């Protein structure tokens, strides 16, 4: 792996302006036979942000051209906004920590360039409405100056981090008696930088019998005010109770740390 030339430091700014004038939406452009064949964001996983810690991830762009790829002119950006064209002033915009990136030539025509990005929940999401789908704008040039620029070369979900709690009581409990299971579902708020209850969401109550490794869903409960969860079940055998949330397009999945109940 080799570091690209420092001349690439100007590329990030050029990539944002060269294809459009002020106030105009940018458009995809293709000149010649340069192609972007693959873009991988965060190793194929969602980007999940809490309220404090920045998230570091990579975007890897693979491109091909019969003359080879001009590495100094390859640079992606991550943006949020409506439509398939990046506006002059997107709702969210994240650029590489180092626009030079790291490039590996697979052969004479194909190269993969990997860039490190950092998203800070207190800076990059403008507000909670920017949770959801973000888009990768990628521009690549061949050594013969053919080039391709795509406003949506790939997409990734940027989700608000969710947390679940659980408590089953009484502990211990007599076999056949009623067990009350409570908890709460909260998610990161990118405007207050605190966690707030997520109401109206289906959450599964799951049980794992002592000595086993698999959870079984017992019932589904909808979160109430401030994300509160509460239900009752019959105590049958020793085991672990937890709440499990599948997530949404804007919010990560979450499992509560299980609560063990001794049934006597």
Search tags:
single chain; 264 residues; mainly beta; Immunoglobulin-like; 2 domains; 6-stranded mixed sheet; 1 helix; elongated; disordered N terminus
Descriptive report:
The protein has two domains: 2-160, Immunoglobulins (Immunoglobulin-like); 162-261, Sandwich (Immunoglobulin-like). The longest helix is centred in the first third of the chain and has 7 residues, at 11-17. Helices cover 3% and strands 49% of the residues. Mean pLDDT is 90; it is low at 1-25. The strands form four sheets. Strands 2, 4, 6, 7, 10 and 11 form a six-stranded mixed beta sheet that branches. It is an all-beta fold and 264 residues long. The termini are far apart. The protein is elongated. The chain has one helix and 20 strands.
């Amino acid at each position: 792996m080799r570091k690209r030339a420092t001349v690439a430091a100007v590329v990030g700014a050029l990539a944002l302006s060269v294809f459009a004038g002020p106030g105009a939406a940018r458009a995809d452009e293709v000149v010649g036979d340069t192609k972007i064949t693959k873009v991988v964001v965060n190793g194929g996983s969602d980007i999940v942000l809490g309220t404090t810690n920045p998230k570091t991830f990579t975007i890897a762009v693979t491109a091909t051209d019969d003359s080879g790829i001009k590495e100094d002119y390859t640079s992606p950006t991550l943006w949020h906004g409506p439509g398939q064209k990046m506006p002059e002033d997107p709702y969210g915009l994240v650029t590489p920590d180092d626009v030079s990136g790291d490039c590996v030539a697979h052969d004479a025509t194909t190269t993969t360039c990997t860039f490190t990005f950092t998203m800070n929940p207190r800076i990059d999401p403008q507000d909670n409405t920017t949770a959801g789908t973000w888009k990768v704008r990628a521009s690549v040039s061949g050594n013969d100056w053919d080039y391709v620029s795509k406003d949506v070369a790939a997409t990734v979900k940027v989700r608000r981090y969710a947390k679940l709690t659980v408590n089953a009581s009484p502990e211990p409990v007599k076999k056949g008696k009623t067990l009350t299971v409570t908890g709460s579902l909260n998610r990161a708020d990118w405007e207050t930088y605190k966690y707030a209850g997520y109401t109206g969401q289906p959450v599964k109550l799951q049980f794992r019998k002592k000595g086993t490794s698999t959870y079984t869903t017992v019932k589904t409960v909808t979160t109430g005010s401030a994300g509160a969860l509460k239900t009752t079940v019959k105590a049958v055998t020793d085991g672990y109770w937890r709440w499990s949330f599948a997530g949404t397009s804007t919010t990560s999945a979450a499992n509560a740390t299980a609560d063990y109940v001794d049934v006597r």
